[in-house]
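Hello Y.,

Per our agreement to keep a running log of every chain we model this quarter, I'm adding this entry. I've kept the format consistent with earlier entries: sequence first, then predicted structure.
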Amino acid sequence: MRITRIYTDINGDSRFEDIKIPWFDRGQIGCLSENIEVKSLQFRKVSPDYDYDFHHAPQRQYIVLLDGGVEIETSLGEVRQFQTGEILLVEDTTGKGHHTKNLEKKERTSIFIHLA
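Predicted structure for the entry above:
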């Protein structure tokens, strides 16, 4: 499974990195990843006109987009778009941060999974 990581480099700039989560065959129950220790889970809803200027993540967290897409821009100007069902690993808790806005003018919901 591919996940996009957003992190801060040594210069304080935010960057994207594509990472793969490996699967392990567990027979009849299917394939599973390794366990990931988490601290808490939070649901989030944002307004249709969501456009949040440069900020950094409040903590290391996975973000699962439940409905609606998002556009994220790094401090270096790289822009990527993410759609419903995609997962982000947001780790830029310091530095220049990233800019986030809705792709469509509609309410968007997601799950934040805060990492331990």
